[in-house]
Amino acid sequence: MSDAPRDPGTEPATRSGDAGSRIAAELREAILDGAYAPGARVRQEDLAGRHGASRLPVREALKMLEAEGLVTVVANTGAWVSRLSLAECEEMYQIRERIEPLLLRYSIPKLTDETIDRLERLAQQMEQSTDIEQFLRLDREFHLSGYAAAETAVLGGLVEQLWNRTQHYRRAFTRVFRSEGDRSVHHDHHLLVHAIRRGDLDEAERVLLGHIRRTRLELARHPEVFA
């Protein structure tokens, strides 16, 4: 172990960075879980008090989430959970329609039988679930697990960011399809598992594209979600 003296300026910065990352992770989870609605104020003093931290790591956390598109920070004013217009949400869903099938194509050849079995169980659990938040957690695990074997430099991170930014509106869509008794989402999940198990890349891409497009079209039918 080196006996060289440590730069006294690096340790507080490191601690602040660690605290900022921790606060960002917890705030991100709270936003995705629906604890903050789009447009809700995020008060720095509340975050600092809750985490026993100074304002510096809180500001760093907000910068991280602003870079991800989850938070909007207005200088000398405050921070709010980002909200999407219908046009913005449609654009993000159209991007997802094009890039998620490609990510799935990269991933399928490397998925293990164990992972595919897990996807099948998740599809069954979603079909049986009566709780919206549980469904959303299972749905997220289902899709991101299906992509997880892909080795990409950019695509995987971009897909996850788009998932995070559209999370609230996916929650709204889930309420809609449940209230209307629509079972097509579950049908898509089972078709997707079957295509993945067969290694049918073209069919898996086709099913996934239609699955994402259906959500986009249903959200467009309910502009009140974006009011």
UniProtKB/TrEMBL annotation:
Pfam families: FCD (PF07729), GntR (PF00392). Gene3D superfamilies: GntR ligand-binding domain-like, Winged helix-like DNA-binding domain superfamily/Winged helix DNA-binding domain. Keywords: DNA-binding, Transcription, Transcription regulation. SUPFAM superfamilies: GntR ligand-binding domain-like, Winged helix' DNA-binding domain. Residues 1-20 are annotated as: Disordered. The keyword Transcription applies. Residues 17-84 form the HTH gntR-type domain. The keyword Transcription regulation applies. PANTHER family: GLUCONATE OPERON TRANSCRIPTIONAL REPRESSOR, TRANSCRIPTIONAL REGULATOR, GNTR FAMILY. This is GntR family transcriptional regulator. It comes from Lysinimonas soli. The lineage of its organism: Bacteria, Bacillati, Actinomycetota, Actinomycetes, Micrococcales.
